[in-house]
Specification:
This protein is of the alpha+beta class. The chain has two helices and three strands. A three-stranded antiparallel beta sheet has the order 1-2-3, with no helix packed on it. The longest helix has 27 residues.
């Protein structure tokens, strides 16, 4: 029984040391920085820009473009190859 306790104590200590090493590595690692262009793209995606809905995969169909408040802005030809 004493040998089992020693083994469990050694395994627990090893896991504790390993976990501490992983935690230290994760905190010391440099965090990625976003470029100005990436930040501008994220803002544009999150901002209130018009979006196209109602497009079909058919030749000659139209796409309806709406503003963020739901007003129809434009009808454009389908960009899908047909």
């Amino acid at each position: 029984m004493k040998n089992l306790n020693k083994i469990l104590f050694a395994v627990s200590g090893g896991l504790l040391l390993g976990g501490g090493a992983v935690l230290a590595y994760m905190q010391a690692r440099p965090q990625p920085e976003f470029s100005d262009l990436t930040l501008a793209n994220i803002e544009a995606l999150a901002g209130g820009e018009a979006s196209a809905v109602g497009c079909r995969y058919e030749k000659g169909s139209r796409c309806y473009v709406f503003s963020p408040n739901g007003v129809l802005v434009d009808k454009v030809r389908n960009a899908y190859p047909g």
